[in-house]
Design goal:
This protein is an alpha/beta fold and about 450 residues long. The chain folds into two domains: about 280 residues, Aminopeptidase; about 120 residues, Alpha-Beta Plaits. About 35% of the residues lie in helices and about 20% in strands. The chain contains twelve helices and 16 strands. The strands form four sheets. It has a six-stranded mixed beta sheet, sandwiched between helices. Strands 10-11-9-12 form a four-stranded antiparallel beta sheet, with helices on one face. A hairpin with a 2-residue loop joins strand 4 and strand 5. Helix 1 crosses helix 3, helix 3 packs across helix 12 and helix 4 packs parallel to helix 11. The chain starts with a helix and ends with a helix. The structure holds ligand BES and manganese (II) ion (2 copies). One manganese (II) ion binds next to loops. The site of one manganese (II) ion (MN) has 5 residues, from loops.
């Protein structure tokens, strides 16, 4: 296995330059303006896989953005690892908060700054390069397949159909994903859980047209005020969500497990300083770490209506809107929570407004058992390259496709990410450490080795 460090040392510059090249492509899946760039990005991923030695590399068209697939079958009798990742990125806005342009990567203080550096181009590219290293050194110990999609950041609307229609192409024994975090560069961790998601949009309608706020204000309900009242009633003073039935299926984590989780290094003062807040806030009776891992939450992602332009305009608006998401934990079900939300939101609507609730994408929570043998291979691999046993953690983010992979392909996922929570994913100044990039390339072949030896 010496080959991997040699490969990294010999190709250090090129490994970086190739990543920088793809970070220049603004593959923003949410904005139709970038459709061409997203397509260009899919081709670049396909080309990198071809160059690395993959067979049957294909850019599959879908109703949305393309899905790249590839494989290297060395022996049908051997097990197959399916590597999943996404080459699309979040929009870069607000652009003026970036210290350097989001699609012109720069290296500063050991980090690569660019949109997608960590989430997920940098991490996808680790897979491509780890595969290339194994190929070049005749060291691929089992079969490998790739599925790299371009719509993860918009809820993977076309991936389910693609997987369902291509179960043979994607058949595998385990799925390997690098799209999560480690605790710190000297505190490795493996992700054993992700939260699910239910994403809603609400519209609150008052009078049939915008009104003069002097002529009508005070006698007609303002839908923005009403929406704010409704939203604030969704969480009580103890941080509990008030939607009837919301907690019914929440799996309670045992005290023993909570004690175990409590050993995860976490510095509250550092946490607050990093975020620039004087206090943290959340559900009563739980620590910050628990609040972002084993407990469900509700957040307003955006709220709008009325006049938000320059200067002031006196208006009593006709409509108000909000996008509201809920993070779910085992065994909550995304669809069921959407229905509970819908019912509750209609119920709490005062008679002076009408409400409309729509359901965006969602995804189910996941847990990966620690005693699942491939998980042990992941733990061994990280221990090997970090020199420390990784800590199992549940993370707060969501990768909705994981639950679907299990349902349709019957395979579990190993979540072996190398990002840091401080990498500003989805925020301005997203970054990815050079340490993390190279460490990922170094660690992944160890996973393959230990996995194939099982
Ligand atoms: N890579 C993230 C998910 C993630 C981030 C998991 C950090 C663990 C730690 C992924 O790209 C993402 O952003 N997912 C979305 C869900 C999607 C449906 C838009 C999320 O979690 O908001
Ligand atoms: Mn991601
Ligand atoms: Mn993301």
């Amino acid at each position: 296995m010496d080959f991997i460090n040699n490969y990294i040392q010999t190709n250090k510059e090129q490994l970086l330059n190739e990543l920088l090249e793809i970070l220049r492509i603004p593959s923003v899946s949410a904005d139709p303006k970038y459709k061409g760039d997203v397509a260009r990005m899919a081709e670049a991923v396909a080309e990198s896989l071809r160059k690395a030695g993959a067979d049957n590399v294909k850019v599959n068209t879908t109703a949305g953005h393309p899905i790249v697939t590839a494989e290297k079958i060395i022996d049908p009798a051997k097990p197959t690892v399916l590597c999943y990742g996404h080459y699309d990125v979040q929009p870069a806005d607000p652009i003026d908060l970036w210290d350097s342009p989001p699609f012109e990567p720069v290296i500063k203080d050991g980090n690569i700054y660019a949109r997608g550096a960590c989430d997920d181009k940098g991490q996808v590219y680790m897979h491509v390069k780890a595969f290339e290293a194994m190929m070049k050194n005749n060291a691929l110990p089992c079969n490998v397949k790739f599925i790299i999609e371009g719509e993860e950041e918009v809820g993977s609307p076309n991936l389910a159909t693609f997987i369902t229609n291509n179960t043979e192409l994607l058949s595998c024994d385990v799925i390997l994903i690098s799209d999560t975090s480690i605790i710190a560069n000297d505190v490795p961790s493996v992700t054993v859980g992700l939260r699910g998601l239910t994403y809603m949009e609400v519209e609150v309608v008052g009078p049939n047209r915008d009104l003069h706020s002097g002529v009508y204000g005070g006698s007609v309900a303002n839908p923005i005020n009403t929406l704010c009242d409704m939203i604030s009633s969704l969480i009580d003073k103890d941080g509990h969500i008030t939607i009837e039935g919301f907690y019914d299926d929440v799996e309670l984590v045992s005290d023993a497990e909570r004690v175990e989780m409590g050993k995860t290094p976490f510095d509250l003062i550092e946490y607050k300083t990093d975020l620039g807040v004087n206090e943290v806030k959340g559900e009563k009776g739980y620590t910050s770490l628990e609040r972002v891992s084993i407990r469900p939450t509700l957040d307003v992602n955006g709220i709008w209506g009325g006049y938000t332009g320059e200067g002031s305009k006196t208006v009593l608006p006709s409509k108000a809107y909000a996008k509201i998401s809920m993070r779910l934990v085992p065994n909550q079900q995304s669809q069921k929570i959407a229905e509970l939300f819908d019912k509750h939101f209609n119920k709490i609507a005062p008679p002076y407004v009408k409400v409309k609730v729509t359901h965006h994408h969602g995804g189910e929570p996941v847990v990966v058992p620690l005693d699942y043998p491939p998980m042990q291979a992941a733990i061994k691999a990280m221990e090997k390259t970090f020199g420390k046993k990784p800590i199992p953690t549940r993370e707060g983010g969501s990768i909705p496709i994981v639950a679907l992979f299990e349902r349709v392909l019957g395979a579990k996922s190993i979540l072996m990410g190398f990002g840091l929570n401080s990498d500003n994913i989805h925020s301005p100044n997203e970054k990815y450490g050079l340490f993390n990039y190279y460490k990922g390339i170094e660690t992944l072949p160890w996973f393959f080795k230990y996995y194939a030896e099982m």
